[in-house]
Write a structure and sequence with these properties.
Elements: H1 2-7, H2 9-27, H3 30-33, H4 36-42, H5 47-53, H6 64-88, H7 92-97, H8 100-104, H9 110-143, H10 150-181, H11 188-208, H12 220-223, H13 226-231, H14 236-259
Helix pairs in contact: 2-6, 2-9, 6-9, 6-10, 6-11, 9-10, 10-14
């Protein structure tokens, strides 16, 4: 576990810096978006454009929690990609790098190997999401509008903060299961992008086409966005189904991994 954590420290720092910079950069636009003249301007955006952006109606960006909830959907996409890449590298990267022989020389079972890697990856994602929460709170304090109390805003955002870690864990467990099942020749990033963005595109289509609306649950990135958590309209069915998919894939992957031939 310690070795795996150390090997991922560099990528962890890169993702922390990148995501933190994105949060600060996006939130720096809040004072501009909250301006009355800007609000009047964006209200004239056509409905067709709003649907492409994922809105039924344009949000009131003068409210800091609404603006934060909107921009964090892009940060959550980044978290999802990073989490599933960590999971997919559980086994395939070891084979490609030729380090699988070293791991199998250790006095641990295959199950212990996978679980230790999963624990190390969970720690990595916990650190990343914790830093994101701290950076978010910092930006709240910097750009806090008049009449809003920081403590109230942070308390209101706790479910959103919790969703960062939950989403990361769902994609981590799913990615780990896929790593134990898929051929190592497949591109890790290609698989990660497909798993994250194909459901997202389908969810976007379901949002734009009324006949496809029942398919919206396919995209967990659409059904558990921060703006929906603030509004209390989270689709728990979608979260539950994705969680079951992740756990089921992981369990089946562990079963398959016990019998999988390893070329070393």
């Amino acid at each position: 576990m310690k070795l795996h954590f150390k090997l991922n420290m560099k990528s962890m720092v890169v993702w922390i810096v990148t995501l933190s910079a994105m949060i600060v950069g996006f939130m720096a636009f809040y004072p501009t978006m909250a301006d009355t003249s800007m609000q009047a301007l964006i209200q004239g955006v056509p409905d067709s454009m709003l649907q492409v952006l994922g809105f039924d109606h344009f949000p009131d960006f003068s409210k800091i929690e609404v603006f934060y909830g909107y921009i964090m959907q892009y940060i959550m996409m980044g978290i999802a990609v990073y989490a599933i890449v960590l999971g997919l590298n559980t086994f395939s990267k070891e084979v490609r790098d030729g380090t699988i022989e070293f791991l199998y020389a250790q006095p641990i079972t295959r199950s212990e190997l996978v679980l230790q890697k999963l624990a190390a990856n969970t720690l990595v994602l916990t650190i990343v999401t914790t830093v994101m929460i701290l950076v978010s709170c910092l930006t709240f304090a910097i750009f806090l509008p008049t009449g809003i109390f920081l403590n109230d805003l942070v308390m209101q955002s706790l479910p959103v903060f919790a969703s960062f870690w939950i989403l990361a864990e769902v994609f981590l467990v799913l990615g780990t299961g896929l790593s134990l099942l898929l051929p190592t020749s497949l591109s890790t990033m290609g698989v990660a992008m497909a798993v994250v963005f194909i459901p997202y595109v389908l969810g976007m289509m379901a949002q734009m086409v009324e006949a496809l609306e029942p398919l919206k649950f396919i995209s967990i990135l659409h059904t558990s966005m921060p703006d929906q958590i603030y509004a209390g309209t989270v689709d728990f069915l979608s979260i539950g189904l994705w969680s079951l998919l992740a756990i089921g894939t992981f369990c089946f992957g562990m079963y398959h991994f016990q019998k999988r031939d390893i070329n070393i």
